[in-house]
Every structure is written in structure tokens, then in C-alpha cells.
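Dear colleagues,

For the upcoming journal club I promised to circulate an example of a predicted protein-ligand complex. I picked one with 6-O-phosphono-alpha-D-glucopyranose because it came up in last month's discussion. The inputs are reproduced below in full, followed by the predicted structure.
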Amino acid sequence: MCGIVGYVGYRQAAEVLMEGLKRLEYRGYDSAGIALVDNGRLSLTKRQGELDVLRGVMPRSEARTGIGHTRWATCGRPSDRNAHPFMSCDGKLAIVHNGIIENYAALRGRLESNGHRFTSETDTEVIVHLLEDHYKGDLRQALADSIKEIEGTYAIAAIRDGGQEIAAARKENPMVIGLGVKENFLASDVTALLSYTNKVLYIMDGETLSITPSEVKVFNAEGVPVEREPAVVTWSAEDAQKGGFEHFMLKEIFEGPNAMHNTLLGALDMIENGEVLPRIDFRSVKLVACGSSFHAAMVGKYVMEEFASLPTTLELASEYRYSPGARETPLVILITQSGETADTLAAAREARRRGCRTLAVTNVVGSTITREVDEVLYTKAGPEIGVAATKTFLAQMLAMYLLAIRIGYAKGNLSHDSMRSALSSLRQSSNMVQSVLNRMHEIEEASKMIDSAEHCFFIGRNINYPTMLEGALKLKEISYIHAEGFAAGELKHGPLALLDSTTPVIATAIKGDPTYEKMLANVSEVAARDSPVLGIGLEGDTELARLCERVIYVPKVKPVYSPIPVTVALQILAYHVAKRRNCSIDKPKNLAKSVTVE
Ligand code: G6P
């Protein structure tokens, strides 16, 4: 799980590559490196640590060709030696890689016995030695021959001394070419290219390519040239930058209303014409995802049942793909903001193999999942750089509501008027997000209840059970506090044993929800164990306030839509706790935004 950039053109390559790597740091940030062709000769600079460490040791260079890499270690611990790029023994070839080479041990044994000297503990290094063996004057051909020996997944970029060319190959890891005038770019993600171009060519699995300043050639797995129309990306470079906020996460939380608004607008066709729905079988549905997307799926289950009476099951993508699949559903919906999560991609393939129709909900146009499924529904949250999902999660929840409402209407569960009124409630709840944002300072104050805790519980019921799981996930991933989410009714079956005055509990109780009274009882149980309770409830709820040490109010909303404002309050809470603890908010340790390994 790493980020790759490449540049060939007339600019200073090192600058372009550093700029691109900065945008890709969310993909990995335990080490970084750059290979340049400087005066015809290859040079490597690589360091363990964040990009700034590399920046500090980068020599001045006039090179116009180079490749760069930001790493998130999978094979071989983070270190200078294990950082990419890697160079061939003769010093004439260099490569960077994202993915996993499964047969690297066998390949390494063979290459070593043929005299290749290895300098790292990585699987990646075998690629550069294979390339050295296969190179006979055509870099792309040598790469195409090398990958024939590789089992696993990869995005690889290679350069050679004396050349102004990058060769690359892709299998199950993202790769995109940025098209310029007298220059071309390569990257794992368009966000790395947006400062230079918005004209891109997406590379498909099995393809290899060669780019020079004036030429782009793409070949399929059989070596036949491929012609493809470029796509134009509508995200601006500014969309992918911090815009005055201290962290991407905060900026992205503040972009929540926009993300919802755009997702709503983008889905209007689907609402009006039933697009993406015509071939959908409404007997039952399974929702499959990982991480935060799985929590959006959990909200999805409630709303599919609420609005559409559609029997809905849930599975984690990493489990679904290995499950016996005895009770298959006609429709599987895969939710993945990046569209690149390895487990979700594998689940999509498995669902199709089992004969299910597949629909992906994703935020990234042209991402791999869009080519693996029958239908796509895009969320329109724009680029998200912070590793912790915020606005994309909101947009995913919204997509779940939209689908449920539309299916409910198509099935006859909702009349035209009820569908309209549900949509207007959704529109209002996006305005409510703004009201929660306006309370940022109150929430910041409330974060003091948690910032020195070692453990923290999040409890909720019904549709706010997943919201609280997501709240706990946000807190643990960016503040490193041990945070657990529970369905409040489950406390008495175990977790209560852990409560005392040192463990704060965040409890959401939404007046009007059928479980509201039960939630109040659960809050009392918790308070009786001396745990400080931070309540989250609807404006004016004095009953809840009486039981809690402190309350964060969200605007009055119908309970079924409450996960939207509650989620934003929890995102802001996690952000401020992490900030008070001086944590690396946008790039939490050991995590990456896009998990392209199983
Ligand atoms: C990683 C990210 C999470 C994300 C999960 C699934 O773990 O850190 O924020 O929820 O992957 O990602 P996806 O792109 O499939 O939604």
C-alpha cells in the first residue's frame, strides 16, 4: 500500500515528484524515496520517515525524469534500506512498486544464485533484478517480460539511465497517466497530478506502458497497443489541498455539507429515472464493505428495511470472500470510498462468481471497483486526503438513504409524496450538518472529558448503533485511545464490568426513537458505575442532560436521519481529542487510506 509518481518532461523532476508524493502520503508514509536521471546517470535518494525527512536530504538536481514512492511497509520493516526505489546491480535501472510479490522468496533464491546482490528485506527488490536480466534495450518490453514471472499484485514504474522514459505495469493496484504538453506524468491517484493536468488515462489490469515527454504508449497483456480516450477530472488541485485548515481532516469535516449536497444532486437522475435500478432484483440485498464503509453499510441495513422493507444482510468484505455463500442474495452492494480496497474488490469478484448482480457505491470515478461490477452509484464527496474517512462516510450514508428511498418507491412501499418528503428531509439533514459545524467550539470543550482517558466507550441503539461504532473507530484511529462501540443493550452482557470513573462513555439518545427510553436507562446504568457520560442528543433534551456530565446537542431531526448530524459531532470530537493529544491527525500511525493488500 504505497504511492507512486513519475515524471518525464521539461520541469525539475524532483520538485514535481515531491509535490506528487505529498498528495499521496495518505497511501503510506513510513518512508519515501526518489530516483532521478541526472545528466544521463541514475541517482537514488530514500529515507525512512515522513516526506519531510527525504526533503531534508534531497540534493539539488536538474533532472527532468524520475520516479518517486511513498511507502507503507508490508514486506520488510520501515527502514532506509527497505525504502523504494531499488536499483539494479549495474546501477542502470530503478523501480518503485505498490503491491505484493507472492513468489518473491523463490525468485530471490534463483536471482541470488545467479549472482544478483540484494540490499533489502522487501519482496519488491526482486523486480529490479528481473528487469536487469530481461533488459535488452526496450524498457517496457523488459518490464512486460519480468511481470510474467511474478505472482501477486503490483503497480510498478521503472526508469533507466540515459533515458527520458518511464515504463510501468499494473495489476490490481491503481495507476493513472497524466497527459501534458511536452511532458507526461504517472501516479497512483489523480490527486498527485492535479497541480499539472486534469487530462488523464486510466490504466487497466494487465496493461504495460511507456511514457516519454512527447509520447504515451499503452499495451494490453498480449502486447497489443491499446487506444483509449483520455478522461477529464473535474476535481481541482485546490480541492485536494488544505485551504487554510490546520489539517485535511478538519477541512474535510467542513466539506461535509458540500459532499452531501453534491451526492444528492449527482443522484437525482437515479431518483428521477430509477437509473442503476432497472436490473435490480428487489427480493433481498447484501451489503459488503470494510472499515468505515462497513459502518455506512450498517446504517444502510436499517434504512433498506425502514424505507423499502428489503431484507438486508451485511458482511465484511474480508469475510464474505471466504464465506460458504449458502444463502446468496440476488443483489450485492459493495461500498468503498476509494474503489481500491483489495478485500472489497475480491468480494465483488466473488459475488459475480456466485451469480449475484453487483452494485458499487464509490467516490472515485474510474477506480478499479467500477470495472468489476454491473452498476455504479457515485458519491460526490471530492478528494479525501485525511486517512480517517469523514466526508466520504457522510456521502456513503447518504447514498444508502437514497438507494433505500428509491427502492422503497420502486417496490411501492413509499408513495410518490412520501419519497419526495424523504428526499426533502435528507436535504435538510445536510443543512443540519452545517449547524453541527457551527458548534465546533462547544464540542472542542467537550473533548476535554476524554483527552486523557485510556479507554472510552461509545454506546447507541438502533440506527445509532453503527454511528457509535464509527465514532469509536474515528477516536481510536487518530487519538490512539482504546475506544469501543457497543449496542447499549449489550453492556450488561460483559462490557459493564470494565466501567469505572476513568472510562468516559459517549452515549447517543435520540428523542422520538423507539429505543430512547431504553437508552436513558442504559445511560443511568453507566452513570451508576461512576463513568463520566458525554451525551449526544437533540436540542432541548433536558432529560438526557440530567443523566450526563455534559451534552452535545444536535439540531432536532427525525430519528431515522439522526446518524447524519451525530456522525459529524463525533468526527469533530475525535478531531479535537487527537489535537489535544498532539497526534498526527491526517496520517495516523500504522494506517493508510487505501488498503490495497488483503
Ligand atoms: C482503510 C481506511 C478507512 C476506510 C477503509 C475502507 O482502512 O483507513 O478509512 O474506511 O480502508 O476503505 P474504502 O476505500 O474501501 O472505503
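Two points we might discuss: Residues 290-293, 336-338, 341, 344, 387, 389, 591, 593-595 surround 6-O-phosphono-alpha-D-glucopyranose (CB under 6 Å). The first strand starts at residue 3 and ends at 8.

See you all on Thursday,
B. R.
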